Amino acid sequence: MAIPRLLVVDDDAETRSMLTQFLQQSGFIALPAESEAEIRSHLEAGRIDLILLDVMLGAENGIKICAQLRTEQEVPIILVSALSQDHQRMAGYEVGADDYIAKPFNPQLLLARVKAVLQRARRSPSLVYRRKTAIFRFGGWSFDAKRGEVLSPQGYQVALSQRERELLKVFLASPHIPLKREEIHAALDVEREGAGPTEGSGRAIDMLVGRLRSKIEADPKEPQMLRTARGVGYIFSVDVETEEAG
Amino acid sequence: MAIPRLLVVDDDAETRSMLTQFLQQSGFIALPAESEAEIRSHLEAGRIDLILLDVMLGAENGIKICAQLRTEQEVPIILVSALSQDHQRMAGYEVGADDYIAKPFNPQLLLARVKAVLQRARRSPSLVYRRKTAIFRFGGWSFDAKRGEVLSPQGYQVALSQRERELLKVFLASPHIPLKREEIHAALDVEREGAGPTEGSGRAIDMLVGRLRSKIEADPKEPQMLRTARGVGYIFSVDVETEEAG
DNA sequence: AGGTTCCGTTACAACTTGTTACCTGCCACT
DNA sequence: AGTGGCAGGTAACAAGTTGTAACGGAACCT
Asked: What ipTM was predicted for this assembly?
């Protein structure tokens, strides 16, 4: 796929330029926008793969805009906000946002989210992606995200710990993309309430990966799915099939 | 009773978030809303036990909204306002508000009022109670909240203790949401008249959960419904179907 | 009174998960 | 090739969390 084109919508000039700059340095094409009108003109003018939308958009309301866009377009949207309360997050999801990230955010985390959403959008033939998607299949395995049930190719249930399941979800969300340790770490800590200042703590990720490998790789010594990207991080190199569930 | 669900209506984002946060920390489920439209959508979408309504609601008028809601719904309403003048208060009561509190208010006072109103609403055989759903179905089980009857998937009646039933209600009210121990504890103690200062007493919740599991989980060692959210609390991960009764 | 049930506390075992330390193998550079 | 450095795998450990058996007090019933 071509370089993803992102639209950065924020009414604060500084935030806007900071964000676009960061995203451009990260290899994306990032376009700034300030208002709903600008969003629409961009959408009409050319391809936009993802919109980063600030919830507190001056007089306008990001959530409202998101809801409207969602009824008309199929552009993935990540809501950005200073409000990290759960209810806000829920409100965001309810109007169809693909993800939600709170300011101030960890740049790595933002990157991870952006990549994940782009990946999902690419995979789904339409905007079929709903948060409902609950069952993933990959290399014979099946993973029910809702129940946390992991079934081996032979159909036996395998017990993963909480953290291992979360790690698996992270990889399932971004197959075929090398993920840096910081990205993984950030993505994992999204789940956690505490969400400390993303302290890159030692080699916890390595251990986690090792433990997950020992459970889902046929030969953990020679991982086929959860491979190492030396000098970078890890990469989940298996096709993932997502299945809607009731 | 389940964790009370409060709707916080205020057009000031900061107040809204402050209020919802405080109420959530106090063991309630607090949802934010900004306009009359949002109130209505929340009311249609799910159970709301109490509305905290700001009198000065931007262009709209809180008192008017209150009056209208009162003619249609039976939700308890507490009016919140910067105006503590008597006539305002009177106006509030006249339109049927259950209580009236002036900003800036003492958090403890607010809590006390909220609890008091909830208590009244519960006790009165009013319409609120009548509309209350009484039968829950989840994972093959059925639970008649009114009678406290719990039927297993095979149709056998299972005897739960009082406290176990209350715990079950708490979870039934908030499926798929991780609940912290303090939240559960607070929710259980809302029920109790005494309502001590929400002392987090040891591991009573753990025991309670364990006992409930042993009664309603097929394999208590491997809970499918009442799962633990490590480092957080517990989560009831089953779809709950609610059935109107009488 | 005696028994029963409920329920919170305590204690301990099992499990999770991050850290440290050591080892191995890869890679770059002679 | 040889070699040194370094990234990554993993065993061992430590700290924290949870499940649960056992205990005991309180309320209730007969």
From this structure: 0.52
